[in-house]
Amino acid sequence: MTTRMIGTTNHGFAQYAQEEIRRKAPGVKFQVLEPGEVFLIHTEVPLEEMQRSLQEDEPIFLRHVQPVTQELSITRTRADLDMLINFVQDLTGVFTPGERVAVQVRKAPGVKCEYTPYGVKEAIDPILAQTHEVEPVIQKPDRIISIYLTAELLYWGISKPEENLSDWSGGAVRYKQEEGQISRAVFKLLEAEERFGLDLASFERALDIGAAPGGWSSLLLKRGLQVTAVDPGEMHADLLSNPNLKHLKNNAGDVRFEEDAFDLLVCDMSWSPKQMSKLVFDLLDALQVGGTAIITVKLMHGKAFQAIKETVAAFGGQLELLKAKQLFHNRDELTLYLLKQ
Ligand SMILES: C[S@@+](CC[C@H](N)C(=O)[O-])C[C@H]1O[C@@H](n2cnc3c(N)ncnc32)[C@H](O)[C@@H]1O
């Protein structure tokens, strides 16, 4: 039986994810659902095998994947909701009473329905609770029902959050803008923390290269770290009075630190990967062995896989790559998670 899944990437990066999937499933076929970002995957590799492989060796550019086990015809009228309610009511042997189930619904752009994606969730949740005795939730689900609506079809699938590579609908990680937030860039570090299973509070001394205006620094300070921020630009005024922050108003090429001065190095310089990796390499003695590095890599000319290879090679074997991932909050860039050797 052909396995079907829906894959989602950041806009414009579908072809990279497809290249990564093709390596796992030769002969795989793709069908565009949203140009450049959402696509159907058709492969002869069994679903469990695909899910295992995607988790064990996670693609860099595939942000989210969901299984498709049913395709239901829809008319985009409210009658679809009745059809779906009947469908869910009739499911047997699928749910375990008491489990937490999240219904995540997405709709292809431009498709006009008489109901909203949230309306679909609202229609199904009571049936899940009453008929199947599960607990409908939004966060921390045991399992996720993923629904994707196109003009004519509703794609349905159930999976565990880790099988989707993200427990956010479509991998779209939404953080609340906080009062006094210094920059949207902070979302990148928050997402890296979640994605890479890091506990930033477990570090003590961080070097933040390319730190201004200070979103990343502010998060590190909030997590209780001592932060040395390097940037010729100005840090946000709210940060300057923080006794745990030291701002060196310099180019990263003009600063030097004592050996092993830091246990965390972060770098979010929007610059060419070549220049960035040279600057970071020259400061690597300051990161203690076993220390962590989180580095944003700008994707310049479309050669993404090459850029990762060259960047890691430029660290001269001093940083081991644990994971490379294009985060939802990365635009034309991706994020590396590395360990000092
Ligand atoms: C995308 S911003 C960083 C945003 C920051 N992570 C935040 O959360 O607010 C990139 C920063 O890198 C800095 N930068 C670029 N080249 C640099 C260099 N050679 N040395 C130090 N900083 C540099 C720029 O001045 C700019 O402030």
UniProtKB/TrEMBL annotation:
Gene3D superfamilies: Vaccinia Virus protein VP39. CDD domains: AdoMet_MTases. The keyword Methyltransferase applies. SUPFAM superfamilies: S-adenosyl-L-methionine-dependent methyltransferases. One of its GO terms (biological process) is methylation. Keywords: Methyltransferase, Transferase. GO terms for molecular function: methyltransferase activity. Residues 183-308 form the Ribosomal RNA methyltransferase FtsJ domain. InterPro entries: RNA_MeTrfase_FtsJ_dom (IPR002877), SAM-dependent_MTases_sf (IPR029063). It comes from the Bacteria. It holds the Pfam family FtsJ. Coiled coil: none annotated. This is 23S rRNA (Cytidine2498-2'-O)-methyltransferase. It comes from Tumebacillus permanentifrigoris. The lineage of its organism: Bacteria, Bacillati, Bacillota, Bacilli, Bacillales.
